[in-house]
Design goal:
Layout: H1 2-7, E1 11-14, H2 21-51, H3 58-87, E2 90-93, H4 94-127, H5 132-135, H6 138-163, E3 173-174, H7 181-187, H8 193-226, H9 231-259, H10 268-292, H11 295-308
Parallel strand pairs: 1-3
Antiparallel strand pairs: 1-2
Helix pairs in contact: 2-3, 2-10, 3-4, 3-10, 4-6, 4-8, 4-9, 6-8, 9-10
Length: 309
């Protein structure tokens, strides 16, 4: 009976970013601006792709789905982070914490799969251009995205069940701004090795295999581009996938800095800043990358401006 009482935790206290009020107000303003910019930028991408006929292609369909994910992820994290900054820390219920982790996990897994199929899409477009229309059909793209969402919701549920296996026997203070896996493991009093092992094994279909597919796709893309005799044609071919390659690099570098690289020597503040990269600023950067480096989207924006103004 005593052991059961020790392991019952009904809420956690998220410390967020501890500091003086000026620093917290600066972070509050920065995150608020970044969040509003993220919502507006990604909504613009979704609107342009859905209303502009020249953007009704598999690549832009996937970009619009990436924008949906980039809206959902910060919406799961930022609003409560702003509340934490205003109050210099805040409590979150155990159920609320698990729910936040569930939706965070779902969007991150979906982005891993989506970036992978986007890499394959660029591979087919550059390496097999004559077969592109027959391979990357509209129904196939919709089925892939629908399947990805189902898989991510299911596996996130499995991950959440695994996390529920952690036992908390007293300390309920999380030195972070949202319910992430690592800080939850840090305050658990039960053995976390089995949990880590299960998470890593279940992550292979979403991290290991997608990374391998992306690498193979871009190795073949680079090889095909280098075989093009004309410099102008080579530059044009590379420009079609440079935006996606930039997004992939930013996404995986920020994730790796938190979950893969050694934590020795890193303070909790450094981990929080690194977490901000992929939860707040990467969703903000993605539409900027696709907007400024894509002629079709620039053209669609100009057409809408001329039409309504």
């Amino acid at each position: 009976m005593q052991e059961n009482n020790l392991t019952e935790v009904s809420e956690f206290f998220l410390l967020g970013f501890q500091g003086n009020q000026k620093l917290r107000m600066f972070l509050f303003s920065l995150l608020l601006v970044a969040y509003n910019g993220t919502i507006c930028g990604n909504l613009l991408i979704i609107t342009l792709v859905s209303t502009s006929r020249n953007l009704h292609t598999p690549m832009y369909f996937f970009i619009s789905q990436l924008s949906i994910s980039d809206i959902l992820l910060p919406t799961d994290i930022v609003p409560y982070t702003l509340y934490i900054l205003l109050n210099n820390g805040a409590t979150i219920t155990y159920i609320g914490c698990m729910a936040q982790w569930y939706f965070f996990c779902t969007t991150e897994l979906f982005e891993c799969l989506l970036l992978t199929v986007m890499s394959y899409d660029r591979y087919v477009a550059i390496c097999k251009p004559l077969h592109y229309i027959s391979i990357m059909t509209g129904p196939l793209c919709m089925k892939l995205v629908f399947t990805f969402w189902l898989l991510c919701f299911f596996f996130s549920f499995i991950y959440s069940i695994i996390i529920l296996g952690l036992q908390f026997c007293g300390p309920n203070i999380i030195d972070h701004f949202f319910c992430d896996l690592v800080p939850l493991q840090d305050i658990a009093c039960s053995d976390t090795f089995p949990i880590k092992l299960q998470i890593y094994l279940l992550s292979i279909p979403f991290v290991g295999i997608p990374n391998l597919i992306i690498i193979i796709s871009y190795v073949n893309i680079v090889r095909a581009i280098l075989q093009i005799p004309s410099n102008i044609s080579r530059q044009k071919a590379f420009s079609t996938c440079s935006s996606h390659l930039t997004v992939v690099s930013v996404f995986y570098m920020s994730l790796s800095s938190v979950y893969i690289l050694p934590k020795s020597g890193q303070t909790s503040d450094v981990n929080k800043i690194l977490s901000l990269l992929y939860t707040v600023f990467t969703p903000l950067i993605n539409p900027i990358i696709y907007s400024f480096r894509n002629k079709d989207i620039k053209k669609a924006v100009q057409e809408k401006i001329q039409k309504y103004f």
